[in-house]
Amino acid sequence: MTLRFTRRQPLKPFNTFGMDVAAEHYCELDDLADLPALLASDVYRQNPTLWLGGGSNVLFTADYPGLVARLTLKGARLLETDGDDAIVEAAAGENWHAFVQHTLSQGWYGLENLSLIPGTVGACPVQNIGAYGVEVKDRIESVVCAQLERGGEPLLLSNADCRFGYRDSVFKHEAAGKLLVTAVRFRLSRQPAPRTGYGDIQQQLAAAGIAAPTPQDVSEAVIRIRSSKLPNPAELGNAGSFFKNPVVPQAQAEALLAEHPALPHYPAGDGRVKLAAGWLIDQCGLKGYRDGDAGVHARQALVLVNYGKASGGDIRALAQKVQAAVRQRFGVALEAEPIIL
Fold first, then answer.
1. Cα gap 257→309, rounded to integer Å
2. DSSP state, 150?
3. Where are the alpha helices (DSSP H) in 208-262?
4. Which residues contact 127 (CB under 8 A, 6 or more apart)?
5. In this predicted structure, what is the pLDDT of residue 246?
6. Which of the 8 DSSP states describes residue 206?
7. S-S: 334 plus which of 120, 192, 200, 243, CB 3.0-4.6 Å?
């Protein structure tokens, strides 16, 4: 497809918060062969550029003054088998949940706990998405990138090169604005080994009377859990979890637990402890709080929602209110997950 730029493109269909904003310039990249032309164009060279996937990790507070380039690259394939492992590559524009379901249908296991996470494949290594005891870094073999300062020349990063951390990676730091994720390669297993240690999954499986779960059973359990707790962006604007679970020093965690024994917490390594942000917000009395059309979801305090007409500024103000309340009561700083523009 020939690359085509448009002006004043509405972005409401392309962000899960449903913000009614526009991009001054816009294009879609569905063929990597068009990337050099995009990078050489006056529009790209003369404007700031936002690379957009599923729009599930961004909060627009105003029109975007530069170029929004939406990645719509598609395709998934088996690259090779290695014993019981399958090396599977998926293009950056593939819908994440659809890709997870595709792997299960092909007998490639390991991503089932990450079912129903919104967004695209290309965003998964950037954010190091995780849920229900699994992080995607556990299954990423390597990441295929385009070097933006070298005309789109390809570069393959190993798992170690990506320097994954909790909801973090090299793509948020040194590689930001320099490397564009175009595909991700996963090392999956052809032998099922479901991970069911997470409490909610165990409860779902027990309720369904499943004693020997398959990966598909785990995926379906995760889908039921997420559907019961998290709003569907197609029905209620949101970006999933708006805040990261804070990681604090052991001493601070112990002091908090002495005062609040019910505070959920998990070891985070290096003498640090991860706290449950949703619990902290709930204890501040903010679960279900609403200010106009900006609100904290009634079933999951980690999720901020747009009830219809909230602006990005309204959501940002609500986020700041939540952060201030948690800081004042617990002395803990909450960090937003979405990019706020």
1. 39
2. G
3. 215-229, 250-259
4. 57, 119, 167, 168, 169, 337
5. 94
6. H
7. 243
Assigned token pair, 186? 């996963």
Residue with tokens 């219809």: 308
pLDDT per position as a tens digit, 37-74: 999 999 999 999 999 988 988 999 999 999 999 999 99
Just list the catalytic residues.
167, 241, 337
Could you say which DSSP state residue 198 is in? S
The label of the residue with tokens 């601070």 reads 252
Beta strands in 83-152, from DSSP E residues, in sequence order = 85-91, 130-131, 134-135, 140-147
As a whole number of Å, the end-to-end CA separation of the chain is 30
What is the token pair recorded at 220?
A: 């379906």
Q: Check: CB of residue 61 under 8 Å from CB of residue 311.
A: yes
Residue 320 tokens, joined: 């700041």
CA distances from 164 to 78, 137, 154, 167 (A): 24, 7, 20, 8
